Amino acid sequence: MPRRIRAARTGAAPLAPGTRWAWQDAAECRDEPITLFFGPPGERAPEREVRERRAKEICATCPVRPECLDYAIARPEKYGTWGGLGEEERASERRNRTRRRGRPGRRAA
Length: 109
Fold this sequence. Notes:
The longest helix is centred in the middle third of the chain and has 16 residues. By secondary structure, the protein is mainly α. Acts as a transcriptional regulator. Probably redox-responsive. The apo- but not holo-form probably binds DNA.
């Protein structure tokens, strides 16, 4: 998600259909500033909350939100907002998915 934003802003050609990054071409965030999804070092809590809320609002309407979140959890991406989840939320989701995979008779989400 956010790394592709930079490519979109520099005029890079869209990825070919079928590539593992092709979902990013349909992402709602593709024309948004990367700083909305990745805060600056030393960002204060009130500013971070406002920024993350705005990023999550964009993610909420994104048609490729599930693909983005799956990518971020599988990678794992440690920083930023991906698939509508912040850093701690993704870490929690990653742990939950790992637990679900380990249970007999349960299919991973």
